[in-house]
Structure formats: C-alpha cells, structure tokens
Amino acid sequence: MRLLLTLALMCALTGVLAPSSSAAGGVRFGIQDDAWLAHGRGSLESRLDRLERLGVDVVRFNLHWNEIELRRGSPSWEASDAVLKGLRTRKIGAVVGLVGAPRWANGGRAPNYAPTAASFAAFARAAASRYSWVREWLVWNEPNQARWLKPTSPAVYVRSLLNPAYAAIHAANPRAKVAGGVTAPRAGSAGMSPVKWIRGMRAAGARLDAYAHHPYPGRPSDSPFAGGCRQADCETITMATLERLLSEVTRAFGAKRIWLTEYGYQTGPGGVSQARQAELLGQAALRVYKAPRVDLLIHYLVVDEPTSARFQSGLFATSGSPKLAALAFPLPLVQAGRSGGKVVLWGQVRPGLGAQSYRLQVRSGGGWRFVGGTRRTSARGYLSTAVSVPRGSLVRTLSVRDGTSGAPLFVR
User: What is the pLDDT of the chain when averaged over all its residues?
Assistant: First the structure.
C-alpha cells in the first residue's frame, strides 16, 4: 500500500517545475496561533522575532468580538492593537477574522449564536476603520459546524454575518477584500458539508471577494496530492480534493480567489511522525503553488496545544523544542520526480521577497556534504532543480543568507 501511495504521489507531482498558466505562483504562506501570539512565552517582540525567522509572509489573527466588546459601546482593543501594530511594524501581512458574538448582540446566548446583522456590521466597520492598513478580512470561522455557528444555516450566515460585514468593511476601506465561507472540510456533528454550504450561500445571495476554506486531511495517511474521498456522493473537501473546492466556488460565485486559511498535520498519538509532518508541509506548498487562484495557505499553530487531546499541528512542541516542521516551514523541500536518473527537487527559501541564494546538502552514510555550488531561486524564492543523489539518502536546503538548514528529505 505504501508503494502504491508513493507511486500515486510521484505521478501527481509530474511536471512541477512551473505553475500552470492559471496558477497563483505568488501564493503567500502564513501561520495562525492566536493564543501563542497574544499570550505566549516571552515578550510579544520575541514572538514576532520568531515569525520573522520562520519566513512568514502573513499571519491570520481573529478578533473575538465577544471579548473585545463585552459591554455594548465599551470596546477594549488593547490586545489586538499590540498584535496587529506589531505585525505592521515587522511588515508581516495580516488576515483578520471577525468571530464570536457578545451576549448583548444575540439575545444573551453563547458566542456561537448569530448576532443581529446591524450590531455585527457596526463591529466590522469599527474594526476595519481602526485597522485601516489591514486589507484582508474573514467573516467568522467554520460556520458550517454547529460548534461555531447556530443556527447552522448558510442563509443565516449570509444574512446576519457575511453580507453586513462585507458592506461595512468596504464602506470603511474600499480597498479591502472580504472572504466568506471560512468552512471546515466536513460537516461534523449537526453541521453541513462545505459543498452544501457553498451552494446555500449562493442561493442566499452571498457577497464576497474571495472564498476561504480549511482543507485539513481526512486521515493521517492522506497527503496533499493523494487520499481524501472522491466518490460522487462525498462532500468533504480536503487538500487532496482541492479541485472540488475550485469547481464548487466557480459554479457558485465565478472565478473568485481562494484563501486556505487553516491547515496542518498533527504529530503524536494518532498522527504522523515529525519527519512526515515536515515532508507534508513541503507537499502542501507545492500543491497550492500549482493550483489556480489560490492566494494564501495558513498553517495552524506555531506551538502545540497543551494537551494531546487538542491540536498537535504546531511547529514546536509545548515544551518549546522545535519539531522538524520548524526547519521545514522556512525551507520547504519536496521530491517532485525523477528526470534522466536525477532527482527533481522543488522548494522555497522564505520569505519569498526576492531571489535568494541557496545550496543543497546530501547525507548518505556519513556527514552532510554539498551537492554542486550556490544556486539562485526565482524572484518569489522558489527553487526547482535536478541533482544526482542516491536513493535512500537525505537531502536538505541551506539558506546562504543566514546559514540555516531545512529539514532532511528522504530520497525515494
């Protein structure tokens, strides 16, 4: 079975040295970890330093309305001010989400119950006015699951949340872009599939500039290129079935841009190994590089959540020790195939803010040695090259700029 999956992956990766004519190519790669960014170990400056070292292009950060405006008319913006101004100072982009309703706006119920349209529009306009430099906004989080929105209805989502926020944000900042959907990959308990949700949004008259989705894998064995459910009646949308998302969004809204605003692979019990997580990060980057209309891929978590029952998709363990993914994120590397007896490698040196110098290192039974001389990436930091390295060896990228090395990639 492992051999079949490997062969399927290699077939899927054929012809990857350039994106298709309609591919984004300039996709930006980012991270979301609200709790760590706002309240993690050390100072905010030290956490922003870490984001810079990781080569992050953009950060997704949620504004929890139920926490910011606990009492009507008395918002407290201090925490979000610090984070968003810090990102702006470091020239790291921000994708800001609006989530959670205060009790005074939804009849005294929990934050996942829909608020009145007027109250949510007022909050959206206030946020967009306050953070006028933020150009990318998300409306809610995974509203197709009951744990995030009740009633779990695309009509309620469009009427009470998306369309009011869309109008309010554009009134405050005409240059802003507002993404709707922000859907989970599956219905979950008492929820709705992303396929039905997209169709329901269209029927309700949704207004949006982009469609956001969270294409988490269905199983740990799934890769960004292989796996997922492909039966005609399956309405789960993962990275492996990204074409289904593109098809449904096009049918509903035309050729809107796609933002993949939450994604990752979990390590630990029931998850994948650290080496596999690092490899899959690179494959996901290649997947979206090749895909049409994808603008963003946001990795979920810098640091694992405190208990193993929660998300363990971080680049660092709860102790703070780096996983291999912490090496792979700034320097993703993928075996993209073979050509004339050589291994075809694809990767990136992040952040993609200009051509970068890099070298390749190989390890086969001894220490690391260089393969060839210094190479240059494209203007967006991408690399694609063919090298002679034996099967079973390890290969990694070294950034000449700062001397850091990526995670080792096993050559098949």
Answer: 94
pLDDT level of residue 308 (50, 70, 90 thresholds): confident
DSSP 96: E
- Is residue 107 classed as helix, strand or coil in its secondary structure? coil
- Residue 210: name the closest of 144, 254, 170, 155 by CA: 254
**242-300: per-residue pLDDT in tens?**
999 999 999 999 999 999 999 999 998 889 999 999 999 999 999 999 999 999 999 99
Helix H segments across 301-369?
324-328
Q: E strands of 196-301, at which residues?
A: 210-213, 257-263, 294-300
In 167-237, DSSP assigns E strands to: 177-183, 210-213
Say yes or no to pLDDT of 233 above 90.
no
First to last CA, the chain: 15
Render pLDDT for 313-346 as a digit per residue (tens, 0 to 9): 999 999 999 999 999 999 999 999 999 889 999 9
Q: What is the spatial distance between Cα 143 and Cα 153, in angstroms, rounded to a whole number?
A: 8
Reported confidence tier of residue 9, pLDDT bands at 50, 70, 90: very low
Q: Helix 242-253 to helix 194-203 angle, to the nearest 10 degrees? A: 10
Q: What CATH fold (topology level) applies to the domain 17-328?
A: TIM Barrel (3.20.20)
Record: fold of 333-410: Immunoglobulin-like (2.60.40)
Backbone dihedral angles phi then psi of residue 368, each to the nearest 5 degrees: -75, 140
Closest CA to 216 of 188, 252, 196: 188
Sequence length of the chain is 412
Sequence spans of domains, the chain: 17-328, 333-410
Give the number of other Cβ atoms within 10 Å of residue 323's Cβ. Answer: 23
239 DSSP assignment: G
Instruction: State yes or no: pLDDT of 25 exceeds 80.
Output: no
DSSP secondary structure string for all residues of 97-144? EEE---GGGTTS--TTB---HHHHHHHHHHHHHHTTT--EEEESS-TT
The residue behind tokens 């219905």 is: 187
Distances (CA, A) of 125 to 42, 74, 121, 274, 396: 33, 15, 6, 42, 46
